[in-house]
Amino acid sequence: QSVLTQPPSVSAAPGQKVTISCSGSSSNIGENYVSWYQQLPGTAPKLLIYDNNKRPSGIPDRFSGSKSGTSATLGITGLQTGDEADYYCGTWDRSLSAHVVFGGGTKLTVL
Amino acid sequence: EVQLVQSGAEVKKPGESLKISCKGSGYTFTNYWIGWVRQMPGKGLEWMGIIYPGDSDSRYNPSFQGQVAMSVDKSISTAHLQWSSLKASDTAMYYCARSSAYGDAGFDSWGQGTLVTVSS
Fold this sequence. Notes:
The structure holds 2 protein chains of 2 kinds.
Chain A: E1 9-12, E2 18-23, E3 35-39, E4 46-49, E5 63-68, E6 71-76, E7 85-93, E8 99-102, E9 106-110
Parallel strand pairs in A: 1-9
Antiparallel strand pairs in A: 2-6, 3-4, 3-7, 5-6, 7-8, 7-9
Chain B: E1 3-6, E2 10-12, E3 18-25, E4 33-39, E5 45-52, E6 57-60, E7 69-73, E8 78-83, E9 92-99, E10 107-110, E11 114-118
């Protein structure tokens, strides 16, 4: 069971908007930055969002991130079939010993 | 262009040792942390640990402490992950990834992954 909780799956039609939630606690999301990753089938994860809401160079502004308290959200607008992938949130957790924790992942289906 | 290139797939028997590698290029290797992430078949991402090539300072996820060892060879800009005695449960894809700071979960560049299969 993952420390961060994500919905197992979400779906939406092309062109629509979808949000993916990531719920944690005060020892992780509550006091640390959140990152989001996209993993297309058969490929390595790719950084989409860092420091809660910043996009690396080359990531389109269709992808956005936000954080409130102990939860974070990834938003994707103008859905494309190429967005079908697994999405993971990640952050640091300072309980017991400091280490990175990931959510269990959310499978996005673009119908 | 920043690149992390990992060594090729491995097939091993239980009890055997293994060392996989991750070679960085396109940036100053000693200025960024290298993390290791496990992905078991059909499962999510698990952070194993992180090492700073500048001084080999390393931190492990408690779940992996004592099970694996991280190291670096600065002279060839390469990080390693090794096992002394593999188990079938070590079968997974292993990724290395770059981070600018300890305490930062933003890994901005990833290797292509090394698939490790442990089977008798």
